[in-house]
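Deliverable D5.2: sample structural annotation.
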Amino acid sequence: MNIILIGAQGSGKGTQAEKLSQSLGIRHVASGDLFRKAIDEQNELGLKAKVYIDRGELVPDDITIAMVLHRIEEPDCAQGVLLDGFPRTIAQAQALDKGLEQQGKQIDVVVYLQVPREELVSRLSGRYICRANQHVYNIRTRPPKVAGICDLDGSELYQRSDDTGEAVQKRLDIFFNQTIRLLDYYGIEKIVEVNGNQSIDQVQKALLDQVTAFMESKH
């Protein structure tokens, strides 16, 4: 089963993707993680991507698509993948469909995690991430026990350059102007909408229930 999880930055997409992929027994593939890994390794794609990420801009399609398709071909993705943060544009979705077709695969369901824009701004401006393992905190809704330190691994917490001020608005503009069009591209027969403006556990339950019900209705 191959799933795309669509949600704006700050919608809790990463947290929910991790939980949902474990529940369904499929691999969680996040474009952001692929970029961070490539940047840490300082490989060619990573260095190219970093220039765009630092400016709060979308990484060009050819770089992103090459990374994602390469990852999906790996053996641990044979049972299916949950794509998080990709595709973000119709051009990416078309290239993904083409690449999957060559692997004899397709996207089965597209889940949209709905959260109001004002809530997203509030979440993002308070978001901090730990350096060691990318654990996420929020100074308002989920603060660490000790300020600036991760509860789980003791590493330093930092705020991403694209979680501040104008960069936040720019990222949300891209989402609400471009990424949202993917719902039309995939069409009503593949879309499941879930209210992301609930507690983590409530969202998790709704996601699992709705995806399971959707897949059962297709068989």
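Annotation notes: Strands lie at 3-6, 27-30, 81-84, 109-114, 127-130, 136-138, 157-158, 191-195. The two ends are 13 Å apart (CA to CA).
The annotation will be released with the project's public dataset once the embargo ends.
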